[in-house]
Amino acid sequence: MKKEELFNTIVDANQNRIRRICAYYNENENDQQDMFQEILINIWKSLDNFKNKSSINTWVYRVAVNTALSFNGKSYKYMRLIVTADMENLNVITDDSGKEKKLLEEQQLEQLQNELNILSVIDKALVSLMLEGLSMKEISDIIGITEANVKVKIHRIKDALKSKLNTKR
Question: 75 and 96 share a domain?
Answer without folding.
Answer: no
